[in-house]
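Note to self: keep these together.
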Amino acid sequence: MATAADLPAVVDTMTGAFYRDPVWAWAFPDDQQRHAQHEVWWGFLMRSAMRYDDVWTIDGGAAATSWIPPGGTELTSEEQDQVEPLLRELLGVGAAPLLEGLARFDENLPSGEQFYYLTMIGTHPSRRGEGIGMRLLGANLARIDAEHMPCYLESTNPVNDERYRRVGFERRGEFTMPGGGPTVTTMWRPARGLPGEAHD
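Structure:
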């Protein structure tokens, strides 16, 4: 589990991991400013996520995952009110399509069922290809399976979809970011290991 001391490493990892991500590069289109903008944005999100005990790291922050537990929220109501001013400060008029896009993330969240929500998974670019992100995810899923809970995520990069399928996520749907922006795939992993369930 990550602590406040891990926050700088986790933010650095997310900043690098999502720098060329189709959705997050579209959201912050200026190559010259994106790194600094991402540091602010991921820092804002990760500080909020750490109010739960569901941010995890491996190898000194080289990979990290952030989960919202069942019944939780990605941001507090106070932080939600800060999103628009923060993005307008970072992006100016360019904040409008991103704000609309974030609303689409919210609209596509499952309702009527409790679940763990994987909001972020990232590996530092210097460690990409070693499998540490998926190893961390596997450890998280084993813990969640012990609680017999389902999981949900949004895949913002289609190259990752197959990796998620290999660990049990199924395609649920998709939505497109505003103005013909990139497509986000929503994925669901049913609860496993239910009491009394037969095991191979």
